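Sorry to interrupt, but I need a hand with the structure work. Go ahead and set the record down below:
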Amino acid sequence: MEAKRRDRDPEGRARSARPRDGLGRPLPYGAQGVERQPEGVVRTPAGTVAEAQRLLDAGMPFHAHEVFEDAWKTGPAGEAALWRGLAQLAVGLTHAARGNAVGGARLLRRGAAGVAASGGGHGIDVPGLVCWAEALAGRVECGEPVDAVAEAPRLMSSA
């Protein structure tokens, strides 16, 4: 029996070449998916927030989480908790929109706690995001379906 070869990126790392939908779910090879976020992009904090908000507004929280993950891994260590918490919020929304109530609620609450503990910064609306995440987690646990576009949070303070 021939071993199945793994998809690899240009650097030789294992990376699935399967297309993905807006919620990051793999689609069959050859299907029309959405473009993936490039990994390891270094952005300014304002650029990170703007790109993540664009993706959230488009109903692509999985992709927004990848933008936050880049900031978490490439930014100053003192800001890692903020970006990690935001990434967890985006993944929580992803799971909730996919119908995974347990995982969605858990990650929304974990992300809210992380963002709150981080001290915020860069104009991020920490109280608003914590309130949004806690409310959404409660609704998800009650079995309410989640539309990622309709539930996209506002990242920045409006004041």
